[in-house]
């Protein structure tokens, strides 16, 4: 892949996960500058991965080919207004990983001719297991699309969505989704301990069950998820008893409501930020 000069604005959980994944997969660390007001996170990335560290968003963006906007959505307007005053974006690709900040909003903040791609990644990018959804307006070149795809492929899998609304659906299905699975695993670990297993064993059992299930899904892409579930479920057996509890509480409806809430919040943020 091309090794363009990248500047990350923001050094938090998500930027850190992408940077770690990128460098681990061979992206040259000296082509990556990480900007944040406080030295804590960006210097930790510098120490661990050899990336460059700066408190100066403007100077770093000025010399970059690619600017990754990785601050919280509520800070995006302030950060962009400051950049817009001093940085010429005409020769730069801008990648936003923020939830709830639309392309239209970026045009208003940084200029109408902005080369922008919205990316919705997730934190498993840290270990090369990320999932990113990408959206670009029509005028974004094939080269910029390809670079964006390759960048995120370095830290996981990617899919493109046809419309910007698709980014909010990606949030519900992948961006926020690691937290759903963590919540589920937390609940299982808690109950396993309550039943008498040690904390270490409870964690190990839940962890391996989850990663084993995910590995089976990955290894059998043609097999419906329902078949994998049925393969565990003996009629009248223990799994059947457990699944009955989920079904009685209508887990499917709960999951649907949760994913709809994520989309609704993203839509609300688009109006707010
Ligand atoms: N955490 C996640 O799982 C995901 C987060 N995102 C998006 O990524 C973005 C960042 O989220 P997190 O990394 O979770 O947040 P975070 O709070 O961990 O990181 C935000 C970073 O921005 C930095 N920052 C604050 N003000 C700044 C400024 N003026 N200039 C430069 N840097 C500044 C902070 O120092 C911090 O390093 C958000 O827009 C979020 O919607 C997208 C997908 C997944
Ligand atoms: O919770 C959030 O708003 C961000 C976007 C997707 C994951 N974390």
Automatic annotation (TrEMBL):
<dbReference type="InterPro" id="IPR028939">
    <property type="entry name" value="P5C_Rdtase_cat_N"/>
</dbReference>
<keyword id="KW-1133">Transmembrane helix</keyword>
<comment type="pathway">
    <text>Amino-acid biosynthesis; L-proline biosynthesis; L-proline from L-glutamate 5-semialdehyde: step 1/1.</text>
</comment>
<keyword id="KW-0963">Cytoplasm</keyword>
<protein>
    <recommendedName>
        <fullName>Pyrroline-5-carboxylate reductase</fullName>
        <ecNumber>1.5.1.2</ecNumber>
    </recommendedName>
</protein>
<keyword id="KW-0521">NADP</keyword>
<feature type="domain" description="Pyrroline-5-carboxylate reductase dimerisation">
    <location>
        <begin position="164"/>
        <end position="269"/>
    </location>
</feature>
<dbReference type="InterPro" id="IPR008927">
    <property type="entry name" value="6-PGluconate_DH-like_C_sf"/>
</dbReference>
<dbReference type="Pfam" id="PF03807">
    <property type="entry name" value="F420_oxidored"/>
</dbReference>
<keyword id="KW-0812">Transmembrane</keyword>
<dbReference type="InterPro" id="IPR053790">
    <property type="entry name" value="P5CR-like_CS"/>
</dbReference>
<keyword id="KW-0472">Membrane</keyword>
<comment type="function">
    <text>Catalyzes the reduction of 1-pyrroline-5-carboxylate (PCA) to L-proline.</text>
</comment>
<dbReference type="InterPro" id="IPR000304">
    <property type="entry name" value="Pyrroline-COOH_reductase"/>
</dbReference>
<dbReference type="Pfam" id="PF14748">
    <property type="entry name" value="P5CR_dimer"/>
</dbReference>
<keyword id="KW-0641">Proline biosynthesis</keyword>
<dbReference type="GO" id="GO:0004735">
    <property type="term" value="F:pyrroline-5-carboxylate reductase activity"/>
</dbReference>
<feature type="transmembrane region" description="Helical">
    <location>
        <begin position="7"/>
        <end position="27"/>
    </location>
</feature>
<dbReference type="InterPro" id="IPR029036">
    <property type="entry name" value="P5CR_dimer"/>
</dbReference>
<dbReference type="InterPro" id="IPR036291">
    <property type="entry name" value="NAD(P)-bd_dom_sf"/>
</dbReference>
<keyword id="KW-0028">Amino-acid biosynthesis</keyword>
<keyword id="KW-0560">Oxidoreductase</keyword>
<feature type="domain" description="Pyrroline-5-carboxylate reductase catalytic N-terminal">
    <location>
        <begin position="5"/>
        <end position="100"/>
    </location>
</feature>
<comment type="similarity">
    <text>Belongs to the pyrroline-5-carboxylate reductase family.</text>
</comment>
């Amino acid at each position: 892949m091309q090794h363009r000069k990248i500047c990350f604005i923001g050094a938090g959980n998500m930027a850190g996960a992408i940077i770690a994944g990128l460098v681990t997969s061979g992206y040259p660390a000296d082509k990556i500058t990480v900007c944040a007001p406080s030295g804590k996170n960006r210097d930790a990335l510098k120490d661990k991965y050899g990336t460059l560290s700066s408190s100066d968003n403007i100077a770093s963006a000025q010399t970059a080919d690619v600017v990754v906007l990785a601050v919280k959505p509520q800070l995006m307007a302030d950060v962009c207004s400051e950049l817009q005053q001093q940085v010429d974006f005409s020769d730069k690709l801008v990648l936003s990983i923020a939830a709830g900040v639309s392309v239209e909003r970026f045009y208003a903040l940084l200029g109408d001719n902005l080369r922008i791609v919205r990316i919705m990644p997730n934190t498993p990018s840290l270990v090369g297991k990320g999932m990113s959804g990408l959206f670009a307006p029509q005028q974004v070149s094939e080269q910029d699309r390809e670079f964006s795809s390759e960048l995120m492929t370095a830290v996981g899998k990617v899919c493109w969505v046809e419309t910007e609304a698709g980014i909010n659906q990606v949030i519900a299905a992948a961006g926020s989704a690691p937290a759903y699975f963590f919540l589920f695993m937390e609940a299982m670990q808690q109950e396993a301990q309550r039943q008498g297993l040690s904390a270490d064993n409870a964690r190990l059992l839940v962890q391996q069950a989850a990663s084993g299930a995910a590995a089976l899904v990955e290894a059998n892409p043609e097999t419906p998820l329902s078949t994998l579930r049925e393969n565990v479920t003996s009629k009248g057996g223990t799994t059947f008893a457990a699944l009955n509890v989920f079904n009685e509480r209508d887990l499917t409806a709960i999951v649907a409501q949760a994913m709809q809430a994520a989309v609704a919040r993203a839509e609300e943020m688009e109006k707010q930020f």
